[in-house]
C-alpha cells in the first residue's frame, strides 16, 4: 500500500533554532504533497503544497518545503522557530496512486522551548 | 464565518447508542470528505461525496457507519451501536471544484466522540 512516513513523532527545538520535520512517501509517480498544521482543539490548516513546477515551496508562517524526487522526500523547514509554532504537523499526499484522496502521515508534534 | 462547520463539537455516549454528526461545508465546495483521527495517528479517510453522490467508502467504514449528503450541501455521519473503538475525532473537509483532485482540503474543527 502507498504510504507516507513522518520520521519522529515528537520534535523539540529551542526558540530561534531551525525546524526540520521529515516526510517521505512511497509512490512510483510523484504525487501531490502537502503539509498541514493542527493547533490544539482546532482543525487542520494547510501550510503549503507542491503540485507541479518549482520544487521549493514557500508556505505560511515562514515555513517552506522542498520536493526531492530522488529521495521521495518533502521535508518541512523553518529557519527560526517561534513559540507559536508549537503544534502537530501532518504530511499528506494525493494523486492517482492514492486514489485521488488525501492520505496523511502519523504526524509530528513540534515543541518549542524558550 | 464561512469555513467548514461541524456539530456537535463533543459527544459522550454509552456503548450501544447511536450518534449522528453534521457537517456544513464551505458553500461553493462540491466535494465533502469525512476522516477519522485517533490519538497519535494522522487522519484516516472514511468517505467522500461529490455533490450528493457518495463516490468512495473506505474499508474502515463498517456497516454500522452511514453517511449521507442528501441535497449536495450538508452531510451527516451516523454511527449505530457505538463501540469503545469508535472513540475518535471525526473530521469533515470540503474542497472547491477543480481543487479536489490536488488534495487541497479545508477542514472543520472536528467532532470528538467518546464512547463509555
What features would you describe in this structure?
The complex is a heterodimer of chains A (114) and B (116). By secondary structure, chain A is mainly β. Helices cover 0% and strands 53% of the residues of chain A. Chain A has strands spanning 4-7, 10-14, 19-25, 32-38, 44-50, 56-58, 64-68, 73-78, 87-94, 103-104, 108-113. Chain A starts with a strand and ends with a strand. Chain B has 116 residues and is an all-beta fold. Chain B has strands at residues 5-7, 10-13, 19-24, 31-37, 44-50, 53-57, 65-68, 75-79, 88-95, 106-107, 111-115. In chain B, β4 (31-37) and β5 (44-50) form a beta hairpin. Chain B starts with a strand and ends with a strand. The model of chain B has no long low-confidence stretch (mean pLDDT 92). Chains A and B meet through β4, β5, β9 and β10 of A and β5 and β10 of B.
Key words describing this protein structure:
heterodimer, A: 114 residues, five-stranded antiparallel sheet, 0% helix, globular, B: 116 residues, mainly beta, seven-stranded mixed sheet, 48% strand
SSE layout and pairings?
The complex is a heterodimer of chains A (114) and B (116).
Chain A: E1 4-7, E2 10-14, E3 19-25, E4 32-38, E5 44-50, E6 56-58, E7 64-68, E8 73-78, E9 87-94, E10 103-104, E11 108-113
Chain B: E1 5-7, E2 10-13, E3 19-24, E4 31-37, E5 44-50, E6 53-57, E7 65-68, E8 75-79, E9 88-95, E10 106-107, E11 111-115
Parallel strand pairs in B: 2-11
Antiparallel strand pairs in B: 1-3, 3-8, 4-5, 4-9, 5-6, 7-8, 9-10, 9-11
